[in-house]
Amino acid sequence: MTSDQTPAQRLPTLEDVAQVAGVSRATVSRVINNIRNVDPQLHKVVWDAVTATGYVPNRAARSLVTGRTGAIALVVSEAENRAADDPFLGAFFSDPFFGRVVGGVLSVLRPSGVHLALVLAGDEDACAKVVSDVRQGQVDGVVVLSLHPHDPLPRLLADAAVPAVLYGRPAAPMPISYVDVATYQGAKLAADHLIARGCQHVATISGSVDMPAGVDRLNGFREAMAKQGVAYVPSYDGGFTQEGGERAMERLLAEHPEVDGVFVASDVMAQGVMTVLREAGKAVPDDVAVIGFDDSSAALATRPQLTTVRQPVEDMAAEMARLLLTRIDQRANRTTSVIFDPDLVARASA
Amino acid sequence: MTSDQTPAQRLPTLEDVAQVAGVSRATVSRVINNIRNVDPQLHKVVWDAVTATGYVPNRAARSLVTGRTGAIALVVSEAENRAADDPFLGAFFSDPFFGRVVGGVLSVLRPSGVHLALVLAGDEDACAKVVSDVRQGQVDGVVVLSLHPHDPLPRLLADAAVPAVLYGRPAAPMPISYVDVATYQGAKLAADHLIARGCQHVATISGSVDMPAGVDRLNGFREAMAKQGVAYVPSYDGGFTQEGGERAMERLLAEHPEVDGVFVASDVMAQGVMTVLREAGKAVPDDVAVIGFDDSSAALATRPQLTTVRQPVEDMAAEMARLLLTRIDQRANRTTSVIFDPDLVARASA
DNA sequence: TCGGGAGCGGAGAGCGCTCTCCCTCTGTGC
DNA sequence: GCACAGAGGGAGAGCGCTCTCCGCTCCCGA
């Protein structure tokens, strides 16, 4: 009776449930994991016993024998040249985008009882650690937010053939799963909208052109404008920052004062663009129509509010989680990609 | 030699290290965990063997026997009346604040190898689940971001006497650890700054007065102004939202057009305030000086940039993690609170 | 010289679970 | 009526680790 002295302290185990249900440990395990056919009556008896005892499987014990942890990591990879505690990483975290991804991923993970561990990979060493963490079974797989085009992490993950899903197409082609948005289509939505408004002098402020998102948004927009009969579209690199957006808009205004429509490759840059336009005495959208990209919360913070191309971040993040869970489940080494359609969210700026 | 057929597949275990080092499993364990005095020479031999084999302790096995998981949860508790997948939760995640907390917590956790699991508690059931998760050893403890004054989670955690640390003082007094900022002092910084500027007609836009932060920032400001000889300060409730800030500022301007200095209880509200002031043709800071609170990224997004009371979010979050780890380590049920000093970050708006 | 204690390392028992065997029992076909 | 298949359930091994015992060695003082 030693073990019964502190019944409130000791958590119920399989053994306890088995005893209450009058079956063996193995049977309880089968019921809990839905394995093989267990007699329906017994099935119910076991579940009743589970409820009665308040039994919850012990993760550690289960992990130990299955070799799975029931946890995946969300890796925010900042690796390139900055230290992990660099203020810049904080700045990224400050971006609304991060939280939306977390929300999307968790919406899928919660029902399946999988934990989400947060990991920051600030440099190449940290990236290597991420890979070894997966191989050593600290987590079953990773979803990755990679912030730089030269981030070594995607390559490392692909080489290690480890369960992983990226947010956004990797900068270089490699065998790794990812979700992305149909950027060309999004840029086309913006182009068509500006044309439909009657804009005669359209320009674009692009993101960094060494990032897939930067290149695709620029090229997609140009292509769509070409289809509309506009052969040339001036473009300025805003580097995906608010500050960069301001500088780019200043140059655009200086060199093309006749501009009456701008496609800005991110909402954050668009914030800067709006500021510059206001200071230049240009009314939005009457003098200059502005369209952003992402539909982040920045789009709601501007006045007038920003018309933008909506990237379904939450849905994409949820799909990442789904792809990863499938991959882990099947233990097969197949890579997949899922591309989402963007929408145009028409607000006041265009 | 069965087990040696696929040496690349099987991860090294304590046993393997022991064999290489020529000692027993127990000794390797002692070395790894720094327990008792092990002969320094042997110590080195063991570490060499660890390096040689590439051994990494198996979390699950360790957990199983120690009863610790080596993971803590960051709980974002939205519990009050909304469902977990409600868009509002997404909106919270969009707030820069969240990411800063994560960064701070991780900076402490990473060195100690503790995992950070993200948990969303959208309703009271989810809160109960959080508590049982800790009791059932899914995680060793929790750090909590509680978003509503009537959130049941802090109470549940306190009652269960579970290792937990809150961000911000709980709405009602209870035995639970927390970190907070010296709000009165912060409000005083703002008051003194406005007075020093020569503002004659000072008002404040407060947050929700049913939240500790809302009440304290308002009362602290009033008290500080009183000390400066200003007996009455008009106040308007902006509910901690940008929209609410706009409405409050509109009313303030209508009822006190002579206002020349405003303390706004959050940067997000201040964004709205700035918009309204601009539309009303008031120059900031010449006509009206504006001071915010938080030093969030919203403070950098306004033009002119916002003078604000800086809440050292990252430091506070780091301290939360530290307090929690200590609490878990000692297994003692003592509650502590740590209060941080705010700074005034002088930018252009005041 | 010997007893005793401190220091150090090994043996071995589990932690709670899954999963492979194997046994039992029922039902079916000849 | 018997062999056999097949399904349901039990026994038990063992996942990798920690930690309690226990025994050995070595040094010191008597």
TrEMBL record, chains A, B:
Q: Per UniProt, which keywords does this protein have? A: DNA-binding, Transcription, Transcription regulation
> Where does this protein have coiled-coil stretches?
none
Molecular function (Gene Ontology), one example:
DNA-binding transcription factor activity
Looking up CDD domains in the UniProt record yields: HTH_LacI (cd01392), PBP1_LacI_sugar_binding-like (cd06267)
Q: Please tell me whether the keyword Cell inner membrane is annotated for this protein.
A: no
SUPFAM superfamilies reported in the protein's UniProt record = lambda repressor-like DNA-binding domains (SSF47413), Periplasmic binding protein-like I (SSF53822)
Residue ranges annotated for the HTH lacI-type domain, each copy included: 12-66
InterPro entries given for it?
Answer: HTH_LacI (IPR000843), LacI/GalR-like_sensor (IPR046335), Lambda_DNA-bd_dom_sf (IPR010982), Peripla_BP_I (IPR028082)
Which Pfam families does the record associate with it?
A: LacI, Peripla_BP_3
Look up keyword Transcription and say if it applies: yes
PANTHER family xref list? HTH-TYPE TRANSCRIPTIONAL REGULATOR GALS, LACI-RELATED TRANSCRIPTIONAL REPRESSOR
Q: What is this protein called?
A: LacI family transcriptional regulator
Which species?
Catellatospora methionotrophica
